[in-house]
Design goal:
With about 350 residues, this protein is α/β, with parallel strands linked by helices. It has a single domain, classed as Rossmann fold. It is about 40% helix and about 10% strand. The protein has a five-stranded parallel β-sheet with strand order 1-2-3-7-6, with helices on both faces. Strands 4-5 form a two-stranded antiparallel ribbon. Strand 2, helix 7 (about 170-175) and strand 3 form a beta-alpha-beta unit. Helix 2 crosses helix 4 (about 85-90), helix 2 packs across helix 11 (about 295-315) and helix 3 packs parallel to helix 9. Bound molecules: thiamine diphosphate (TPP). Thiamine diphosphate (TPP) binds near residues 161, 163, 164, 195 and 197.
Length: about 350
């Protein structure tokens, strides 16, 4: 008995069983949701799918640790299009992701006018996800600067892909976040899935780790196995606390899987060669008896049912019409007629 408790503690980094079960539950929820989105695409009920299956371990831990709220005293999140697990962990209902996927007027992020995964949640400081890759790295500098000026313990979180680090915005972020004496409270992260659409990591990088580039700017940095939720949770917790304490940036390169290829543009087909973080974690919890096979079935089927119901509900809702095309554009609808410019 004593020995098995010791093994548990070592295996799970001292995290409480309730937290481990919560992480697993949210990882399953994210996976079921993503697979529902792919089914919606395949059924011809949406135009395009892109998302985060394979990033559940990383994304869920990030969402659980972010200080959620509106305004400078809370964390800001500048995420990319594989961030569904983070938002699920922050409390986004499945149906809101499905409304965006099916371009419904009821989609709270964009009113049904953008791609899947392109969320925007002002009440949680979630900045709009952009289609041009990596611009979030330079946009995030703005909120980090404002947070520093306000003197809160809040931080700005930026996520993005490995291939996109070739963009200038990534370099700009490293430079502006790390100026001596003017450092910014930023958690700069890269989810390295070893691919940029169909271009392999090998052959595109001289450095061994993207994280090495942050080191060159004096930014504290580390590489983690983002497929392991224990390692991920502990690393994120430590780095976020460091940023809150010091007001300085930290960099995490998180190695993750890409389970269904790049997007629907490449077929959204399952890739059996990739590590599945949800199944791996589940097996670990089953092995030590924290979960029972029967519970696992109930969790998966419960979310499956929720996803189907949400799809049916979204199907019954209206799509946006042309009369609302100028709403929520930057210059305001009354001045937004392009012919006036
Ligand atoms: C500025 C810009 N250039 C090119 C593209 C086309 N594009 C979309 S996703 C992508 C690959 C990004 O790969 P990576 O940064 O590794 O992220 P991943 O999709 O693998 O998560 C590219 C090149 C784009 N959207 N924006």
């Amino acid at each position: 008995m004593y020995l098995s408790l010791m093994v548990k503690k070592n295996d799970f980094g001292g995290l409480a069983p309730e937290l481990l079960l919560k992480i697993h539950n949210l990882m399953v929820k994210s996976r079921v949701l993503e697979e529902r989105l792919i089914k919606i695409y395949r059924a011809g009920e949406s135009y395009f799918w892109i998302g985060g299956p394979g990033e559940e371990s990383w994304g869920v831990c990030l969402g659980l640790l972010a200080h959620k709220g509106k305004g400078l005293s809370y964390d800001f999140l500048h995420l990319h299009y594989r961030c569904t697990p983070t938002l699920v962990a922050m409390g986004m209902p499945m149906i809101d992701s499905i409304r965006l996927m099916m371009n419904r007027k009821t989609d709270p992020s964009t009113g049904g006018r953008n791609f899947s995964g392109h969320y925007c949640i002002p009440d949680w400081n979630v900045a709009p996800v952009t289609s041009p890759i990596e611009v979030q790295y330079s946009i995030g500098l703005g909120t980090a600067h404002a947070q520093k000026r306000a003197g809160h313990r809040s931080l700005t979180i930026v996520t993005g892909g490995d291939a996109g680090t070739a963009e200038g915005d990534f370099a700009s972020c490293l430079i502006w976040a790390s100026r001596r004496g003017q450092e910014l409270p930023m958690l700069i992260t890269v989810q390295n899935n070893k691919w940029g659409i169909s271009t392999k990591w090998e052959g595109q990088h001289g450095e061994e780790h993207v994280a090495d580039r942050a080191k060159a700017f004096g930014i504290r940095s580390r590489v983690i196995n983002g497929n392991d939720p224990i390692e991920t949770y502990l690393a994120l917790q430590e780095e976020m606390e460091y940023i809150r304490q010091t007001g300085k940036p930290s960099f995490i390169e998180s190695k993750v899987s890409r389970l269904y290829g790049h997007s629907s543009a490449s077929g959204a087909n399952a890739d059996a060669n990739e590590v599945d973080p949800v199944k791996d974690f589940e097996e670990k919890l089953l092995k030590v008896g924290l979960l029972k096979a029967e519970q696992v079935k109930i969790i998966w089927s419960g979310y499956e049912e929720e996803g189907i119901k949400a799809q049916e509900q979204a199907r019954s809702e209206a799509q946006p019409q042309s009369d609302s095309i100028w709403e929520n554009v930057f210059v305001g609808s009354e001045n937004a007629d392009w012919r006036k410019f």
